[in-house]
Amino acid sequence: MVLRNANVVTLEPGLPYAGQVAVTGDVISWVGGPDGSQSPAGAGTRVIDCGGRTVLPAFNDAHMHLLSLAATFWSVDCSPGQVTSIRDIQHLISDRARKAHAGEWVRAFGYDESALEERRHPNRADLDAAAPDVPVRLIHRSGHASVLNTAGLGQAGLRAETPDPDVGYMDRDPVTGRPTGFVVDMEEHISKAAPRPTYEQVQDGIKQASQLLVSRGIGSVQDATVKNDIERWNLFQRLKADGSFQANITFMPGINHVAAFYQQGLQFGFQRGGVRVGNAKIVATLDNGYVQPNGEDLRILVTAARQAGFPSAIHAVESEVVEAALRALMDTRGSEELGAPRDRIEHGSEIPDQLIQLLWQSEVQLVTQPSFLYYSGDRYLADVAPARHPWLYRGSSLIAGGIVPPAAGSDAPVAPANPLRGIHAAVNRRTQKGAWISPEEGVRAQWAVEMHTRYPAFAAGEERIRGSISPGKAADLVILDRNPIDCPPEEIADIPVFMTIVGGQVVWE
Ligand SMILES: [Zn+2]
């Protein structure tokens, strides 16, 4: 395959712009300058005339949750674009409950209490009114909380006499002690009770997710789900093998499953059938002002991962957690790790000035979500203390120094997987309603593009394999109608994706 008449942005310092790219099999075999020299195209070579369009390395979504994204295709969408009130949610759920088969649950997702007219979380009574008999699980837009109806609570074994869970939180009526239906971080508990989707259901959702991702120019995704275990690894292998999913996958095993990966010889960087083993995923949160797990326990987890040969990726949103995570990563590093750290912090949503130096010193890579500035920015401006606004999803101040550049991910399905929107937000830093969030943190478009291409490849340990356009690298390319690096910054998000190529195959046009 040869791409001609193109504005190729290689992201390679030696030859930043080119006019043609030749692909042999699944790798880039030749990159030609913008002069008239013709690439070596033999008979039978497919020639794609790009009509002067821009060719970039395909986007790489450095943090997302693939099976949750697939599940959105068989679930009831209760996100702010779809509903404005609890009444709306009830209508949607009641419609779906009427069509449910025996034993099936209604799965709904995406509600945001701050965007509902009632300005509160729905509760079991609201859901019982919509679906008295069918178990219902309504998932909060963060993915970390859910509301269950009475049938759902019953099947999950959550009753007044149920003790408080070790992990997570179950909200109760202060008088009766009965669960209100609202639970936090009890995903593992609930999914044990809910019937598992069939392979065909998962496959159908994954195919739709795959189409969506490649239509947005995404050639690689990194799945950062803490539930990722051997069974899911095998599921991803099967979905790739039968062609249901087109982008490359980096699969980050959950910290509790790292030992099993180690025992099966599935080490960090191991690759099979388009799925690669990534960092060990650890979740740390702020619970009543305390970092959970605490610093000592975080060091134990990170050490266990290192001993199995895995760098870590720690979910850390609040500044207190980011600091604890950075210290745990630095404190546990032996001399052998110096110079080659691969550890990551996921989100790093709040980074105060005093943590920037620590981040640079640690050489830990930040994997952040600039598109949240757009999708959730209005909520942050309303809910986050103004003193913390300058810390939110920082950009330019993080790249002023430091060796390891931040990478970007969507956290889909928490926010849509839309890299051009992420690039737009990293540059413009405006919310959906048009408010600014620390515009001085905006980065140059070139940098924002690299946050969605080269730097995610580094985050996955794949910078020698993909992330830029040069001979020998994977033929993962996106063709855009316009160049996001030199078009007016307010138009980046609307650039149409003309074609997506993964491993030398046209997967979307
Ligand atoms: Zn996530």
Detailed description of the structure:
- The chain has 509 residues and is α/β, with parallel strands linked by helices.
- The strands form 6 sheets. Strands 3-2-7-26-27-28 form a 6-stranded mixed beta sheet, with helices on one face. Strands 9-10-11-12-14-13 form a 6-stranded mixed beta sheet.
- The protein is globular, with a radius of gyration of 23 Å.
- The protein is built from 17 helices and 28 strands.
- The longest helix is centred in the middle third of the chain and has 17 residues, at 199-215.
- It folds into 2 domains: 67-193, Diaminopimelate Epimerase, Chain A, domain 1; 198-463, Metal-dependent hydrolases (TIM Barrel).
- Helix 10 links the parallel strand 22 and strand 23.
- Helices cover 29% and strands 22% of the residues.
- Bound molecules: zinc ion.
- Zinc ion is lined by residues 63, 65, 224, 411.
Identify the CATH class of the largest domain.
Alpha Beta
Largest sheet: 6 strands, mixed
Trace the largest sheet across and list its strands. Answer: 3-2-7-26-27-28
CATH H-level homologous superfamily name of the largest domain: Metal-dependent hydrolases
Chemical compounds bound to the protein:
zinc ion
Describe the global form.
globular
How far apart the termini lie comes to 15 Å
Label the structural class.
Answer: alpha/beta
